[in-house]
Amino acid sequence: MKTYIVIPHYVISEHVAQLAKDTIKSFRDTSDCFIISCDDKSPYNADFLEDISDVTIRNKENKGFAGNCNVGFKWILDNVKEECNVVCVNNDIEVYKGWLEEFERTLSLVDARIIGGIGFKTKGGVPDKINANYISVGGYLEDWMFPGGMYMVKKSVLEDYGLYDELFVHGGYEDIDLFFRWRNAGEKLVITPKVAYWHEEGATRFSEQEKGKQSKAEIKNRLYFRKKNGEDAHTLMPKFLKDIRINF
Questions:
Q1: Does residue 203 sit in helix, strand or coil?
Q2: Could you tell me where the beta strands, DSSP code E, fall in the chain?
Q3: Whole domain around residue 60: which residue ranges?
């Protein structure tokens, strides 16, 4: 089964540009196609993306995280007829080797279509407290919630339940909203500690250029999330996202 990598990108600096190059390098050997959806009016020239991706989609306006991901997802839905793996990856990720084989093996064992690993903000191995002898199929594993930074779904999941809600601006909650939708539909959200990746997290959002916008956007998204999912949505998270363990 082929694997397509979707990377949303907003280039604000040489540092973020280098992160994107490193992200693609860490995934290159295990992917069949890289799709980068980027904002053409970003502060830093994005022409270099044409050289490091298989498909580069240049949007005329800033679509934010949800919109850029959706552009990549739609390309796959329009151009790939057979079932495939769709991996959504932030542009500041480095994954450790063996991730794809472990994802596919675990999904086949638990009959699921959605899987994520464990992300860390410090480069290095998995902390000792993580027990790699079990997985969770409920969207939580110890203190880790299903990761928005890097996850893999079958294309049929996107066909069945739709894409990100683009009413969320670039400020968070759009991924949690999508995961709620999947869990409410009865899908398993599998997390395996055997797949680990480094995530700088917020290289674009929390930059000096974006901090002011980010604070307002996060408040707006939080209010919309509660309006859509209920005022007590955060307290209901354990109801929908649980640490349901399976020993391996």
A1: coil
A2: 3-9, 33-39, 55-59, 85-89, 93-95, 114-120, 134-136, 140-141, 144-145, 150-154, 190-199, 245-247
A3: 3-247
Classify residue 138 by its DSSP letter: B
Based on its alpha-carbon atoms, the radius of gyration of the chain, rounded to whole angstroms, reads: 17
Ramachandran region, residue 119 (left: φ > 0; alpha: ψ -120 to 50; beta: rest):
beta
SS3 162: coil
Running DSSP on this structure, what letter comes out for residue 96?
A: P
Name which residue leads in pLDDT, 124 or 159: 159
Residues 68 and 59 sit within 8 Å (Cβ to Cβ)? yes
Task: Report whether 126 contacts 132 (CB < 8 A).
Answer: yes
Neighbouring CB atoms inside 10 A of 69's CB total: 25
Please count the structural domains in the chain: 1
Q: What is the pLDDT of residues 199-248, one digit of tens each?
A: 876 655 544 445 555 667 788 888 888 888 877 766 656 556 778 888 86
Asked if residues 139 and 191 have their Cβ atoms less than 8 Å apart, the reply is yes
**CATH number, residue 78:** 3.90.550.10
Residue 158 carries which side chain, given as an amino acid letter?
L
SS3 237: helix
